[in-house]
Design brief:
45% of the residues lie in helices and 22% in strands. The chain has 16 helices and 15 strands.
Length: 454
């Protein structure tokens, strides 16, 4: 029986990755609890137990103490003497202790694996969440960490990121993710050896799971092409990553220490004419040609939004006429003010303040510090800019209403040409072939701004 006990303990230690010595100490504590139960004792020091690590023999004893509480002798207690009820107590204590050891072992193991990619098997679905078996643990993937549109069924193999490991009291709560940006980062490390070896660094990453991701990379070795290495021969490396995330588009962006160059790279495939930075507002204004506007914005503003997160700059997109119009209104507003010079206006433009709205937002104190003007003049400049900004806003609202009216009239005319049922009327010219959503984004300015914090 003693050798059989050792074999059982060895099996538990191996299967559950628990230290054998911990299990033996748990068994000894359980036997002492059984002895206290049998003798109806509350003294934790009254009984002792020891298991021989080689033979498996268990020895239980009761300490004999003098009046001063010193141990002067001990009395061995046969296990058989403890009876059935204390034995049940010992069993319950052992089960509890073994579970605690296993929980602590899982906590320690997965805490070390936090941030790593693991492969598991889908066990079941609990509401919108997935329960995944990873090695000997059941992990949890909430809806918010899944890639939208993905469907898994029990038995499917799945690769995930160990996002977080929490102590849930009676169990270890392991949170998995496929939607976190770090999942893409770890996939690059797995597929691109240069990334794993830190020859290529992933400087920044912005992602909208299931739709699009932008990854900024740089090489520490001038002989290594960071973008080419990440894409691989004929796109083999990037294709493996895209397949893993079910076709999510991944843009590789070359990192640059110059914010202007980085922003130009980040908004690709759109071609950027100019980038104006306003450090005081943390905002970049990019100028693109009319035919590049839809590309720069992206579907529902996605391209500029991801570019903003990637670079850490708020990004506004303007066409050259819009940019020139903003500067023109700014000049018309400030030139009549006594004390404002052309040199001052040039400096305002160089600081990235390209409209009356910028002056209003920045405030007079920055103007005093950057332009070296008096508080009085700065106050006058800000007040004039604020008044003109309100006028421009009213004009924009009026133009937007007129554009909406024209769009409604065009839609009605198109409907009439198509016969009212979506089919062209007899003799009517064919409808133009165009991406209606992209056209609307460009015309109405939808999504022209991207914010770094969301």
């Amino acid at each position: 029986m003693n050798s059989e006990t050792l074999r059982i303990l060895d099996s538990i230690a191996r299967d559950r990755n628990v230290d054998r010595e911990h299990l033996i100490r748990d068994l000894e504590m359980a036997m002492m609890s059984a002895a206290r139960k049998h003798f109806d004792s509350l003294d934790a020091e009254e009984f002792g137990c020891e298991m021989d690590r080689l033979s498996g023999k268990i020895t239980i004893w009761r300490n004999v103490m003098n009046d001063e509480g010193e141990i002067i002798d001990r009395e061995d207690i046969p296990i058989e003497r403890l009876g059935r009820i204390p034995a049940q107590t010992a069993k319950q204590v052992m089960i509890q202790k073994f579970r605690e050891d296993e929980r602590n072992s899982l906590m320690e193991e997965f805490a070390k694996r936090q941030g790593e990619i693991v492969t598991g098997t889908v066990v079941r679905q609990e509401g919108p969440a997935l329960i995944v078996q990873v090695d000997r643990a059941e992990a949890f993937m909430p809806k918010s960490e899944q890639i939208p549109g993905e469907m898994f069924k029990p038995g499917d193999r799945i690769r995930c990121l160990v996002l977080d490991v929490r102590d849930g009291g009676s169990q270890v709560k392991i949170i998995l993710s496929r939607g976190n940006p770090d999942f893409i980062r770890r996939l690059f490390e797995a597929e691109v050896p240069e990334v794993a070896e830190r020859v290529i660094e992933i400087k920044a990453l912005a992602r909208e799971p299931g739709q699009r991701c932008k990854v900024a990379v740089a090489s520490v070795d001038s002989k290594v092409d960071a973008k080419g290495a990440c894409i691989g021969v004929r796109g083999s490396r990037i294709r493996n990553i895209v397949d893993e995330v079910n076709g999510e588009k991944i843009d590789i962006v070359l990192w640059n220490e110059s914010s202007q160059v980085l922003i130009s790279n980040a908004v690709r495939p759109a071609a950027v004419e100019e980038v104006s930075l306003c450090f005081e507002l943390g905002r970049a204004t990019i100028i693109v040609r009319e035919d590049q506007l839809s590309l720069a914005i992206g579907k529902r503003g996605q391209n500029v939004r991801l570019a903003a997160r990637l670079t850490g700059w708020d990004i506004d997109i303007l066409t050259p006429p819009e940019f020139a119009k903003g500067l023109e209104i700014l000049g018309e507003t400030l030139r009549p003010i006594e004390g404002v010079t052309d040199e001052m206006l040039d400096k305002i433009g160089a600081l990235g303040m390209i409209s009356v709205f910028d002056i209003e937002e920045i405030g007079h104190q920055i103007l005093v510090e950057e332009l070296g003007i008096t508080d009085e003049l700065a106050e006058i400049v800000c007040a004039a800019s604020s008044n003109r900004a309100r006028e421009v806003e009213v004009e924009r609202e009026r133009d937007a209403a007129a554009a909406a009216q024209r769009a409604a009239e065009d839609a009605a005319a198109t409907n009439a040409i198509l016969g009212g049922d979506g089919a062209p009327a007899e003799g009517a010219p064919p409808a133009p072939d165009m991406d209606a959503e992209s056209a609307a984004d460009s015309i109405l300015g939808f999504g022209r701004s991207g914010r770094a914090n969301g």
